[in-house]
Specification:
The complex is a heterodimer of chains A (about 500) and B (about 650).
Chain A: H1 2-16, H2 21-29, H3 35-42, E1 49-51, E2 74-81, E3 84-91, H4 102-118, E4 122-126, H5 137-153, E5 159-163, E6 166-168, H6 173-176, E7 180-184, E8 189-191, H7 195-202, H8 208-212, H9 214-220, E9 226-228, H10 231-242, H11 283-290, E10 297-299, E11 307-314, E12 317-324, H12 335-350, E13 355-361, H13 368-373, H14 375-388, E14 393-402, H15 403-408, E15 418-421, E16 426-428, H16 432-439, H17 447-461, H18 465-469, E17 475-476, H19 482-492
Parallel strand pairs in A: 3-4, 4-5, 5-7, 6-8, 7-9, 12-13, 13-14, 14-15, 14-16, 15-17
Antiparallel strand pairs in A: 1-2, 2-3, 10-11, 11-12
Chain B: E1 4-7, H1 11-23, E2 27-32, H2 40-44, E3 47-50, H3 63-73, E4 77-79, H4 89-98, E5 101-102, H5 107-114, H6 116-125, E6 133-134, H7 141-151, E7 155-163, E8 166-171, H8 174-192, E9 197-201, E10 207-215, E11 221-233, E12 236-242, H9 249-265, E13 270-278, E14 284-290, H10 297-304, H11 308-316, E15 333-340, E16 342-343, E17 349-350, E18 353-354, E19 357-359, E20 368-372, E21 379-380, E22 387-395, H12 398-410, E23 413-415, H13 421-429, H14 431-435, H15 442-446, H16 458-480, E24 497-501, E25 504-513, E26 516-521, E27 524-529, E28 538-543, E29 546-555, E30 558-563, E31 566-573, H17 575-581, E32 595-597, E33 602-607, E34 614-615, E35 620-626, E36 629-634, E37 639-644, E38 651-652, E39 657-661
Parallel strand pairs in B: 1-2, 1-4, 2-3, 4-5
Antiparallel strand pairs in B: 6-9, 7-8, 7-9, 10-11, 10-13, 11-12, 12-15, 13-14, 15-22, 16-17, 18-21, 19-23, 20-22, 24-25, 24-31, 25-26, 26-27, 28-29, 29-30, 30-31, 32-39, 33-35, 33-38, 34-37, 35-36, 37-39
Helix pairs in contact in B: 4-5, 7-8, 12-13
Classes of the chains: A alpha/beta (about 500), B alpha+beta (about 650).
């Protein structure tokens, strides 16, 4: 019997060694941790249970001479993050460069199937050179098997991707279909075709980092939601992020205790809105003062800064925040900000996370770049996302809510549940000046008259009370009481029940 | 008594005056510019009058507007505060003509003391010690040597038109006078086109010590002892205290007597301050007299128990001083620090912006006193002095006052704009300050490269580690509660954390108690109790030697702790996490020397270079306007422009790249 036990231990030791000491050293030399070290930091101590440790790819004529390595380049299983279950796969770059074979793909599919069956999120740590070319079409099939599972799981369980090394070619499409992508600065990149191919095809000279590094994807492309300094930082942040997520689409988001009073007053919010309507202010100050303990996990911070999205908690429970940011492009909606917020709203709606929206929007960004780029369809995404969302929706208009953008930003008309306004709110078709220049076109050459009319218009319409009279606003609230009012609204909506008509699925303007 | 006092000022001093007036049952009127519409002094006053746009030259300094406000509100007295119109004799005269009382000295006394030469002559005549020197221009080297001999060495050779150290020489001997006179004259000629030179006694290791006087209209003059204000930066006082650690009773008596004599000689009434420069041998020389309430008056109030504003009001009302010189008693010690919106790390450039977070330490008015005109959400604007508050503490002795100041500064939580509380805390902890070895060059000598917070060492470092580990453990325990196993919030385990600060990592084991923790750090141990709640950015705990307060900023998964002017970025890791963290490459911050960065938030006025242009060191690159000042940015080395990142009209953030070199 002891022999057999020893044999098991020997096999385990062999499997844990992955690609061997030399390759582990090389991995460390690049500033990266190994697949198993990463799981150690990601998961609660001693909570990881591994599946498929001894899986090997069956040899074919191309690989007959290569000795197989148990585990086949990906570590899979489940564990706990702060006591909550999570399925994980962690690609092992030391084993055939983390390349994906049929067996490797099968291991990933296996944990995804179990995750679906048990209603538990999947967290993937990606570090792979791509398809294992020797496996040929088998590895392509493997990718597609994973893709199909990503799609099936979408909206059922949260899926999170951490890019911690290369992720190129077809491999990018699995993370792309997950809910969130995080990248490690300097040691990770993602692209469909690499710099060499780019060079031959388009003659562009571009480095891996420029083409698909963390800064590219967190600023320009918006592929990634955030980037972190190194592996250790990434894994700590993933734990922090995971604490916000519900387990699946049938469960409520997690709750933890907080001693931050729900009725905490913030007198300084009474002076947040500058007296000059042209002057910006930082909407993140409002978020920071409303949310529990000032703790806000912002996503896509460096992309489309004119809208702010991220998670916080109210009375200990996860809430998604969407807010126009007057500091950037006056907080207008454009292609990038509409796409950014729309996807976030849809995530929240999938997973029962209430949405709190702060509105200060002067309208859509004008211009040929926007129109040629299809702002009509992209703007519609955000409108669509808000309108179809059935989770609790609490909206606060702090200042401008002009034109169609007002409708879009979780207005009463698209089933906003509780819609508040600060007394500084201006809910109107457009700003006073623009309105006057259209209504009183005949006076347009008389600046004095226009100014007088503008003042008159501002007085009459640039306030929340016209909208409140019509019932489009539930109440005009004191800024200092914002946290209390939102907490109470969320308490009220705790058991909100609303269903969309049966459909196979909707047809959001993609 | 007056029925209604108008305060022709803003900010903390307006609030300060309103407070005393209220105590005396007198109604108050505030004036305000557009920038101050919602300001504290406006809210505190019984009435408020709008007096124009933000620039002081169009509001607080416009006599006509103040006079109109007086008429409109029927105020029968005006307190000018400090600055603005407080030392304007014409304003005092105009009030006299209106039949409104000016809560300050008579116009003639203001005028007499307002002129540098005139006041010095008057002081001389009143028997006040003045800096020996020769105020007329000096013809040649021979005369210079002769005068230097009369004045006594060392001497300062100064250009009449001088400034900023240019055309200034210190000479300890005849030879040095010979050489210094010629070079100062040459430099003055080339720099200012004016080669007039004069000579005065050079005061070595100068200290700034001033005497507070109080006079009534009936010929009574007393002094309330001294204040030492030697801690200055570019002639701006930063720390003041009373009494001075340098004076003895005899010297205080002599300086006080001379100050009273001067006040009497000019027919002074109200509160006034006679400023002296004191050398290392305890010789003191008259500098000037400030005919108003000083910024730093709270330290005098704290050690004398008097309300100077009340005294000023009573004197203006014609009352006799209620106390004689022998009634003035000095009780303990008081220290004041000026909390400024400025960035000590950027050579103390003024900072502006909204006080996003502002939490002042607990004040009782006796041991801790805060004079401020702002609160959370207030805007520090570019139009006025960027002072946020004056923080004053009192103790039985100097050390106690300093300790209380340190505690108060630790609890002073300000975010949203740059501020100097950590710098002030660093001064308070500086051995030379604690010993009282002060000169007006203290900051220049002790902080030659500006101020950057030091990392904690020794016992202080252990406290930083203990606090960070404690906090982290609390957060970690709470996070576990969202899990299904519902573990209790109070962390139960004592697994040591690895606490990283800088290059050093310590094993820190925390044993939690309901009211605090016992912490073991690599074999050393310490205990504290605290009622800290999760998320509070201010952490106060009672250690064996008393309460210590830390400020905590969570930066993602790390913490930045500030305490006693010392700052540290702290990471708390599991032992395994720390071991693996060792493998993480050190990231070298991007080389910014190739960039011209905006030194402050502002507006890009112009860019003088184009892409591909060769530039030599010293050449103008761009002009940035901030605080109404145009700042010319110049190349620090030769190079070729690679990219111009911003264009005229762009608003720039601090450290935003304007131009990049190849």
């Amino acid at each position: 019997m002891q022999d057999i036990l020893d044999q098991l231990e020997a096999r385990r030791v062999r499997a844990r060694l992955g690609g061997g000491e030399r390759r582990i050293e090389a991995q460390h030399g690049k500033g990266k941790l190994t697949a198993r070290e990463r799981l150690e930091l990601l998961l609660d101590e001693n909570s990881f249970e591994e599946f498929g440790m001894f899986v090997e790819q069956a040899p074919n004529e191309m690989t007959a001479d290569i000795e197989p390595i148990p585990g086949d380049g990906v570590v899979t299983g489940w564990g706990l993050i702060n006591g909550r279950k999570v399925f994980v796969f962690s690609q092992d770059f030391t084993v055939f460069g983390g390349s994906l074979s049929e067996a490797h793909a099968q291991k990933i599919c296996n944990v995804m199937d179990m995750a679906m069956k048990n209603g538990v999120p999947v967290l993937g740590l990606n570090d792979s050179g791509g398809a294992r070319i020797q496996e040929g079409v088998g590895s392509l099939a493997g990718y597609a098997d994973v893709f199909q599972r990503n799609v099936n799981a979408s909206g059922v369980i949260p899926q999170v991707s951490a890019i911690m090394g290369p992720c190129a070619g077809g491999a990018v499409y699995s993370p792309a279909m997950t809910d969130f992508i995080f990248m490690v600065q300097d040691t990770s990149y993602m692209f469909v075709t690499g710099p060499e191919v780019v060079k031959t095809v388009t003659h562009e000279d571009v480095t891996q980092e420029e083409l698909g590094g963390a800064s590219t994807h967190t600023t320009k492309s918006s592929v990634a939601d955030s980037a972190f300094e190194n592996d250790v930082e990434m894994l700590a942040q993933l734990r922090r992020f995971y604490d916000f997520l519900p387990m699946n689409n049938r469960e409520q988001p997690p709750v933890w205790p907080t001693s931050d009073p729900f009725d905490r007053e913030e007198p300084s919010l009474d002076t947040l809105i500058p007296s000059d309507p042209q002057k910006p202010y930082d909407i993140k100050e409002l978020i920071g003062k409303v949310v529990d303990e000032g703790d806000f996990f912002e996503l896509q911070e460096n992309h489309a800064g004119n809208i702010v999205i991220g998670f916080g908690r109210m009375e200990g429970r996860t809430v998604g925040f969407v807010a126009n940011q007057p500091m950037v492009l006056a907080g207008c909606l454009d292609i990038d900000s509409s796409k950014k917020a729309a996807r976030f709203v849809r995530f929240c709606d999938c997973f029962n996370i209430p949405i709190v929206t702060f509105v200060d929007v002067p309208g859509f960004l004008p211009g040929t770049a926007q129109e040629y780029g299809g702002i009509i369809k992209h703007g519609a995404k955000l409108l669509f996302a808000y309108a179809e969302a059935t989770v609790p929706k609490v909206t606060l208009i702090t200042r401008k809510a002009y034109g169609g953008a007002y409708d879009v930003m979780s207005s009463k008309h698209i089933r906003g549940d509780i819609n508040y306004a600060w007394p500084t709110a201006e809910i109107a078709v457009m700003g006073p000046k623009g309105a006057v220049e259209i209504i009183y076109r005949e006076d347009k050459n008389d600046p004095e008259k226009i100014e007088a009319r503008t003042e008159e218009y501002r007085e009459r319409f640039a306030n929340p009370f016209i909208a409140a009279q019509k019932g489009f606003i539930d109440d005009v609230i004191y800024p200092h009481s914002t946290r209390r009012r939102i907490c109470r609204a969320l308490r009220l909506l705790e058991n909100k029940s609303l269903e969309n008509p049966w459909k196979k699925h909707d047809n959001i303007p993609l | 008594m007056f029925k209604k006092i108008l305060i022709a000022n803003r900010g903390e001093i307006a609030c300060r005056v309103i407070r005393s007036a209220k105590d005396m049952g007198i109604a108050t009127v505030a004036v305000y510019s557009d920038a101050d519409a919602g300001a504290l002094h406006v809210r505190m006053a019984d009435e408020a009058v709008h007096i124009g746009p933000p620039p002081a030259s169009e509001s607080y300094l416009v006599m006509e507007k103040i006079l109109a406000a007086i008429r409109d509100t029927g105020a029968d007295a005006v307190h000018p505060g400090y600055g603005f119109l407080s030392e304007n004799a014409d304003f005092a005269r105009a009030l006299e003509a209106e039949g409104v009382a000016f809560i300050g000295p008579p116009p003639d006394a203001i005028a007499a003391m307002g002129d540098k030469i005139e006041s010095k002559k008057l002081a001389d005549a009143a028997g006040v010690s003045t800096v020996p020197g020769h105020m007329d221009t000096i013809a040649d080297v021979a005369e210079a040597v002769k005068i230097a001999g009369e004045v006594g060495y060392p001497v300062m050779i100064k250009a009449s038109a001088g400034g900023g150290g240019k055309g200034m020489r210190i000479a300890y001997s005849e030879d040095e006078v010979d050489e210094g006179f010629r070079s100062a004259q040459n430099e003055a000629r080339s720099s200012f086109g004016d080669d007039r030179i004069f000579i005065e006694k050079y005061v070595e290791e100068p200290r700034h010590i001033e005497i507070q006087v109080l006079a009534d209209a009936h010929g009574n003059v007393i002094h309330l002892g001294e204040r030492e204000c030697s801690i200055q930066r570019r002639h701006q006082k930063v720390v003041e205290e009373a009494p001075s650690p340098f004076l003895d009773a005899e010297m205080r008596e002599a300086m006080g007597a001379q100050s009273c004599a001067l006040a009497a000689a000019v027919g002074y009434r109200s509160a006034g301050t006679v400023e002296f420069i004191v050398d290392k041998d305890r010789n003191f020389y008259f500098l000037e007299m400030n005919t108003r309430l000083q910024v730093e008056h709270p330290v005098t109030e704290m050690i004398t128990g008097l309300d100077l504003v009340e005294q000023m009001i009573r004197v203006a009302n014609g009352e006799k001083l209620s106390l004689r010189q022998e009634d003035v008693k000095i009780d303990g010690w008081a220290v004041e620090t000026r909390v400024y919106a400025e960035d000590p790390r950027r050579n103390f450039l003024p900072a502006i912006g909204r006080l996003v977070r502002y939490r002042a330490p607990v004040q009782d008015g006796i041991n801790v006193r805060i004079d401020t005109g702002v609160g959370e959400g207030s805007e520090i604007s570019m139009f006025y002095d960027p002072m946020i508050a004056k923080l004053a503490t009192h103790g039985a002795d100097r050390n106690q006052a300093i300790t209380r100041m340190q505690d108060a500064l630790d609890g002073y939580f300000i975010r949203g704009t740059g501020h100097n509380t950590a710098f002030l805390a660093s001064i308070m902890a500086h051995p030379r300050f604690v010993e009282g070895r002060l000169t007006t060059n203290f900051i220049a000598e002790e902080y030659p490269d500006g101020y950057a917070p030091a990392a904690p060492e020794g016992a202080l470092r252990d406290r930083f580690s203990a606090v960070a580990a404690y906090i982290h453990g609390r957060f970690a325990a709470r996070a576990r509660q969202s899990g299904a196993n519902g573990s209790p919030e109070l962390p139960g385990n004592v697994t040591p954390w690895q606490v990283q600060m800088g290059d050093i990592s310590d094993a820190v084991a925390v044993t939690y108690r309901p009211d605090g923790a016992d912490v073991a750090i690599d074999g050393r141990s310490l205990s504290f109790s605290t009622d800290w709640t999760l998320g509070n950015p201010v952490f106060a705990a009672t250690f064996e030697d008393g309460v210590a307060t830390f400020q905590i900023d969570r930066t993602g998964v790390a913490y930045r702790l500030t305490h006693r002017g010392v700052e540290a970025n702290v990471r708390v890791l599991t032992p395994r996490g720390a071991a693996l963290d060792e493998r993480m490459p050190e990231k070298i911050p991007p080389d910014l020397s190739r960039f011209v960065l905006s030194p402050m938030p502002g507006l890009l006025v112009s860019v003088a270079v184009e892409e591909g242009m060769p530039v030599s060191a010293g050449e103008e690159i761009a002009v940035v306007e901030a605080m109404k000042m145009e700042n010319v940015l110049r190349a620090t080395s030769d190079g070729v422009v690679k990219t111009v990142h911003a264009g005229p009209g762009d608003s720039l953030a601090v450290d935003q790249a304007i131009v990049e070199f190849e």
